[in-house]
Amino acid sequence: MSFGDVATKAGGGGLPPNDGLGPLSDRLSLGVAARLSRYLQVLTQARKMGKETISSQELSEYTHVNSTQIRRDLSGFGKFGKRGVGYNVDSLVSQIRKILRTSGQHNIALFGAGHLGKAIASSDIFADHGFRVVAVFDQDPGKIGEQVGPATVRHVDDLRSVVDEEDIVVGVLAVPTAAAQELADKLVDAGVKIIFNYSEALLQVPPEVTVHTSSPAVDLLYALYFYLT
Amino acid sequence: MSFGDVATKAGGGGLPPNDGLGPLSDRLSLGVAARLSRYLQVLTQARKMGKETISSQELSEYTHVNSTQIRRDLSGFGKFGKRGVGYNVDSLVSQIRKILRTSGQHNIALFGAGHLGKAIASSDIFADHGFRVVAVFDQDPGKIGEQVGPATVRHVDDLRSVVDEEDIVVGVLAVPTAAAQELADKLVDAGVKIIFNYSEALLQVPPEVTVHTSSPAVDLLYALYFYLT
């Protein structure tokens, strides 16, 4: 039994041997998009710290992705690196952002148009990483039609059709604890495999579904503990 | 050089040999409050999972705090445990919450009365852990006087006096990136040693100050990477 975040790695569906990189107009596989997103996070931080070039070896140390895999991921999109010098950080950041913005296209459905939901929906970080909050739901009928970030609030009854039409891969629950399990059930029924739970509910889901439980306040307290002791 | 969250452990100020436990009417030291808060997080999760009793050894495994230290922390507040059986989870949760609510009293100043700031300020988790958002600041004059969670929005010019009067131990920055460094400077000048940074700014602070950088969107993307690869 483990405590803290209840998270089980999503099972099945390995990457095709050629990394799943098709023509640019195809959508990137989730695995590739996720790795590119991780490189982008690290590169963005490197850039902030004034680092101008980075080698695949360094990227490997920071991301814990095998450096051969990194070079393969990045080679599929054209030449970014110079042998012996490494990749230009600025250039790589722009290129990866561009690729993720155009070919990432992995969609998020958000539940809860309260403060936290609005904070998440209006974050422009997602777009850089190829993820989009394409649908927002709230059980308050008064909020239907309201603009939240890039989306308009819809009724929870539309969940199933939205998940199908928009090919939702992640459901985010920024809702009161009492509402979370029912929404999780609906997401699971609709075929969504990854759920981010910002409530305090301990969600019951089938083994092939991943639940990540977190919240800004809990994270803050958890980190405080490590800084104060 | 390390990437990701830029966090340096707060230096100096060790705990007195008797754990800093004074009479209950005294405020708990930060170290003790932080450990109790950590036990409470783990115990709350244990309770959700239906666990009725827990031993100091188990608590030690989950929190990574030495079990002798745990027994010492908990013994100072009266008998919670039964030899051979362990502590009653429900009872321990109530007792620790009560202690933290009355003797925790560690205060947080929040900057930014936008969506994320409001989400953090209105979280009732802090109170259980003995932390209180006692002050909220925003640079928009139109927001001064607005109620945000348990506090009223004040002008940033009041920062110094608020930090002194309210004995602020943590500053939380839920502000646009461009505004973060200036606020961090003000917090540091006022003597605050721990800063939670929800912006994308890479903050420059003196070595004795701890900065924890995070944001719901970044955490979501980071976790997604691990679930998808």
From TrEMBL, chains A, B:
Pfam families membership: CoA_binding, Put_DNA-bind_N
Keyword flag NAD: yes
Residue ranges flagged as DNA-binding region: 38-77
Alphabetical list of SUPFAM superfamilies matching this protein: NAD(P)-binding Rossmann-fold domains, Winged helix' DNA-binding domain
Intracellular or extracellular location(s): Cytoplasm
Single GO molecular function: DNA binding
InterPro entries membership: CoA-bd, NAD(P)-bd_dom_sf, Rex_DNA-bd_C_dom, Tscrpt_rep_Rex, WH-like_DNA-bd_sf, WH_DNA-bd_sf
Tagged with keyword Amino-acid biosynthesis: no
Taxonomic superkingdom: Bacteria
Region (Disordered): 1-20
Keywords: Cytoplasm, DNA-binding, NAD, Repressor, Transcription, Transcription regulation
Binding site for NAD(+): 112-117
Gene3D superfamilies: NAD(P)-binding Rossmann-like Domain (3.40.50.720), Winged helix-like DNA-binding domain superfamily/Winged helix DNA-binding domain (1.10.10.10)
GO terms of biological process kind: negative regulation of DNA-templated transcription; response to redox state
Chain segments annotated as transmembrane: none
GO terms for cellular component: cytoplasm
Main localization of the protein described in the UniProt heading: cytoplasm
Domain CoA-binding as annotated: residue spans: 104-202
NCBIfam families linked: PRK05472.2-3, PRK05472.2-4, PRK05472.2-5
Family as reported in the entry's similarity comment: Belongs to the transcriptional regulatory Rex family.
Known partners and oligomeric status: Homodimer.
Function: Modulates transcription in response to changes in cellular NADH/NAD(+) redox state.
Entry protein name: Redox-sensing transcriptional repressor Rex
